[in-house]
Structures are given as C-alpha cells and as structure tokens.
Amino acid sequence: MLYVKAPAKINLTLDVLYKRPDQYHEVEMIMTTVDLADRIGLESRADGQIKIVSTDNFVPDDQRNFAYQAAELLKNTYGIKEGVTISIEKQIPIAAGLAGGSSDAAATLRGLNELWNLNLTMDELAEHGAKIGSDVSFCVYGGTALATGRGEKIKELSAPPTCWVVLAKPKIGVSTADVYGGLNIEGLQHPNTSEMIKAIETEDYELMCNSLGNVLETVTFNLHPEVITIKEQMQRFGADAVLMSGSGPTVFGLVENEARVSRIYNGLRGFCEEVYVVRMLGERNPLA
Ligand code: ATP
C-alpha cells in the first residue's frame, strides 16, 4: 500500500474579479496548506476497477468522489490496465471551505504517478487536476501560492510568516455553487492581494493580518449567520486576525502568541464541536 498525504488549505485572500463568458468566475486568491490532512492509501488491483473505501460515510464511494475521478482520468489517458483501491482516511471536514475533496484528488494524482510509473511532472499533474476541479491544481503543489484564472493558474510564493492557525467549523456544510451564485460582483470590497504578497515576501506578520480578505464572507454570512458568531467569538478570545476560508463555513484565526492559542481553542470548543489548532506547511515541497 502506498500512502499519500492530502493536506487542507486555507485562503489568506479570495477575490472575484468578474464573471467570464464561460460562466466561471475569474478569481485571485492566495492559498496555503496546513497540517490537517487526509491520508490516502493506494493499492493496485488486478481486475482493472477503481474502488473507494472511506472511514467517513459522507464521502461518496463512486464517480462523484474527486479521488475516483483522478484515478479514472489517469487510467483512461495513459491506457492503464490495472485498477486501484483508494482508501480515504478523512480528517478534513467535508464541504468546509478547506478543499478536502480537491486535496484527495491531488494526492491520488501524485500517488498514482508513482504507483503506475507514469513519470509525469508536477505541472502535468496540475494540468490534469484542473479538469477535475479549480482547486485541484493548487493542491497538487501544496505550499503557498497565488491562484488566478478560475483558480487553476498557480504562481508559487514563499512561506508566510510563522504563526498558529485555529480552525473552527460550525456544524453546517456549505455549497460552493450556492455561495458563488449569491455573489453580487458590482458591490464587492476587494481584498488587497498585492499587499498580502508583500506581507509574505517580507515576512511581515502584522501586514499579513491586516491584508486578510475574502469576498465570499458576506454571502455565506447571509446564508448562515452562525458563521458570523464564530468569527466574532474567535476575535473576542484573542486571535490576531480572523477570516472565513473559501466559501466557508470554516473560520480561521491567526495567532502569534502560543500562550493565547489554548484560550482561543477552549473558548471556541464551548459552542463549536470541530476546532483544530494547526500550522501552515509554508513552502511547496514534495508531499507524495
Ligand atoms: P472547496 O474549499 O474546494 O470549495 P470544500 O472543502 O468546501 O471544497 P469538499 O470537502 O471538497 O468541499 O466537499 C465538497 C463536496 O464534494 C462534498 O459535498 C462531497 O460530496 C464531494 N466530494 C467528492 N469527493 C470527495 C472527497 N474525496 N472527500 C470529500 N468530499 C468529496
């Protein structure tokens, strides 16, 4: 069995520039991987089939699973006769804005590249990833990056300033399509993406905190007001800066002072079941 890690991501920024003629939104976002990860196990099958086994009943076990789609894509493109059993040990909350499904697909691409001796480059794997979903390309590389286009054009960035990240996920799932559907592009308050890039390049923690921004926040807040409560609580317990990740509902807080982390964690645990303390993984590195 070959094991591959599939880490979650958070958005330090998420901006929508306009809606394209092909109906996708042109985005600009800075994403970074964190050390909350699913574990993907890959085992070759002689019968040529693709099977999904998961510890989580909410993970689809058929073609709807992004990891299944990743395996099918490589199998069909490169005429692979073998099949594969994909075991997904789920740690990343589902439909949470943390790209769990996309990361499982990316890990499957990286893992099968090895298992099936395909010798594909990361860029080639990322190109395949984009056919499955907009966030899959980023997840192939991991680390920290500026993503543009519909999210599939990746420009590598250096590691953000070091800090703790507290993640809190309210007990609701959010449909990314619904959130984008509710977005009014005219009235958006755009985050300052270039200031965030500067913060990362100059390792300026304060500037990073001040440059966090996500245009989807107000849409998700309107759909699910409990997400605002989590954000307010995270601020009240002493996080330096707080933002919703992706289309939500997960909210993350950045914290520099280690002593404050447990206060925030314990405070949030009072009314939110899923709270995690994680670190950013920083730079891109071979995750497979
Ligand atoms: P993003 O941040 O990219 O918008 P997300 O974290 O909000 O993604 P996912 O956890 O990827 O959302 O789940 C979105 C949907 O994808 C779920 O409703 C689920 O049915 C489906 N899905 C497909 N494959 C997977 C997978 N391997 N793990 C979890 N969900 C999956």
UniProtKB/TrEMBL annotation:
An annotated GO BP: isopentenyl diphosphate biosynthetic process, methylerythritol 4-phosphate pathway
Residue ranges annotated for the GHMP kinase N-terminal domain, each copy included: 65-143
Superkingdom in the source lineage: Bacteria
Record key words, sorted: ATP-binding, Isoprene biosynthesis, Kinase, Nucleotide-binding, Transferase
Gene Ontology molecular-function annotations: 4-(cytidine 5'-diphospho)-2-C-methyl-D-erythritol kinase activity; ATP binding
Record-linked Gene3D superfamilies: 3.30.230.10, GHMP kinase, C-terminal domain
EC number: 2.7.1.148
Residue intervals of the GHMP kinase C-terminal domain: 196-272
Active site: 9, 135
InterPro entries given in the database record: GHMP_kinase_C_dom (IPR013750), GHMP_kinase_C_sf (IPR036554), GHMP_kinase_N_dom (IPR006204), IspE (IPR004424), Ribosomal_Su5_D2-typ_SF (IPR020568), Ribsml_uS5_D2-typ_fold_subgr (IPR014721)
Reactions the enzyme catalyzes: 4-CDP-2-C-methyl-D-erythritol + ATP = 4-CDP-2-C-methyl-D-erythritol 2-phosphate + ADP + H(+)
Pathway: Isoprenoid biosynthesis; isopentenyl diphosphate biosynthesis via DXP pathway; isopentenyl diphosphate from 1-deoxy-D-xylulose 5-phosphate: step 3/6
Segments traversing the membrane: none
UniProt binding sites for ATP: 93-103
UniProt entry tagged with the keyword Kinase: yes
SUPFAM superfamilies recorded: GHMP Kinase, C-terminal domain, Ribosomal protein S5 domain 2-like
Presence of the UniProt keyword ATP-binding in the record: yes
Family, similarity comment: Belongs to the GHMP kinase family. IspE subfamily.
Function: Catalyzes the phosphorylation of the position 2 hydroxy group of 4-diphosphocytidyl-2C-methyl-D-erythritol.
HAMAP family tied to this protein: IspE
Name of the protein described by the UniProt record: 4-diphosphocytidyl-2-C-methyl-D-erythritol kinase
Provenance organism: Solibacillus silvestris (strain StLB046)
